[in-house]
Amino acid sequence: MHKTIACDFFIVPTATFRVLFGFVVLHHQQRRIIHFNVTANPTAEWTALQIQQALHDDDLDIRFLLRDRDWIYGEAFQSKMKSLQLEEVRTAPQSPWQNPFSERVIGSLRHELLDHVIVLGENHLRRLVSGYLAYYHQARPHLSLDRNSPIPRKVDPPENGQVIATPMVGGLHHRYTRAA
Q: DSSP class of residue 152?
């Protein structure tokens, strides 16, 4: 589990009725989204490049890539995974529950951000999701991380003062800290 990442696509309609494809790469153990990008035309080459960019951090010792059986993971993608020495673990057909962490993070992204905004285009979606990722990594509690965030937060005792709410993600969410 410590050496596993998972990836998945999700679609986002825009104000002009175009469809954009978001792509996330999630580190299993840390519940950290290590890479995100958007495209209007996904290809196997583009997807392979995204995995390569996700693994640019030398501190990551990744051996397994969990993914579904989408057509986008074609020959170019599979050969790139071999060159990166990643073992691909494919879920069974039509079995999203076999990639639960990716499905959960995409569900959170939808429920906590995308259901509340109208996306204008690729750059707008990148900006929105970048803001959400800051919240997701720094302030959002995760049950699997003992109600902490992927970047651990310190506990503020009551003697540090009143609780202050700092707006994040354009005011959709807040980070709560104590005034020291």
A: P
